[in-house]
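Recall the central idea of this unit: under ordinary conditions, the amino acid sequence of a chain determines the structure it adopts. In this exercise we apply that idea directly, starting from the sequence alone.
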Amino acid sequence: MKARLLLYGVDDFAGALISRRAAATGLVHIAAGRDIARVAAHANALSKTHAGLAEPRIFGLGDKSRLADQLDDVAVLVNCSPRVSETAPALIDACLATHTHYLDLCSKTLDLSQVSTRDSEARAAGITLVPGANFDVAAADAMSARLATMLPSARILTVAVRRSALSRSEAHDLVEACRAPGNVLKDGELVAAVAAERSVHVDFGDGEETAFLAPWRCESLAASRRGPYTSVDAFEVFPPALMRAAARAGLRRWMFRRGIRLAALERKLSGRREGPTQRQLEKSRSVVWGEARAADGSVRRARLETPAAHLYTADASLLIARALLAGKTAPGFHWPSEVGGAALVEAIEGVVWRELADPSETTAPDLAAPVAVSS
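Accordingly, the structure predicted from this sequence is:
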């Protein structure tokens, strides 16, 4: 019986970080990727402090038979690549052929939806597919699931996110998402929406901040695939440089919409680094704020505070990988909270859950337009 864990993408920032976190907890794994030099350098560096915990393995995704051979001894594959749209189809095909569980870090609605279409194939192969094992999806998914438990009659969900420093690939994805149309869930239907067309004021723990509509986030997709919510709005705090570029008028807005100087904007958003520094990771906090409403006016609000988004991503993906290694999850497509459960809140170091008191005093009269308030 296969029992090995493979992390694919250690030649990129997120994969290398997850591999280091795995080794630090004594989790033996295969550290894989397609860049020979970078995979070797990562494995060599890791062997100096955690000898024997990470075996390097280098392979591309072009040859299907060779790719399947790489997974013959693998029980769980974690796709850590930032290029999920490119890597997921081939890796899922190989996982189906070799009966290997699959999870990834994707956060784009399209990528999540495409993985969900493989549900019947996964069930037939007896494997589990879990996309979105990261802060952007898993933390918000944990928030919405717990609010639904607190208020089972809830039908309207509002989520607002303030995350920590961006990696280079995340900066690129955020800029592209802001320029593209998205969707929100309203009365059970996905409705077209534009980034930043609405805003809410949210207290993330240290005073009110403005969060703008982020219709690329997956909360609407998740709710449309499973209950109980019929209307969902997702908001996010935008970095100042992005807000200036996406302002409603002026030259910067014109340039932003036409794709001019986007690469320079992405470099600025990421601090011209592949990923946050160790100091940024240690000092930063990320927050998910959530509000659930029922038709009778009942409201529950909470905050989920986590370490830096990348650290939460690393720990959440490894937590879910361990659950899959233990064979405790039914085959098919699953959202992170369906596999990780309460552990996504309670078993990750540095995560704090806070239910916000007395929401009834500030209940919005219009249930279709939830209002965010400070705690």
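Confidence is low (pLDDT under 50) at residues 360-375.
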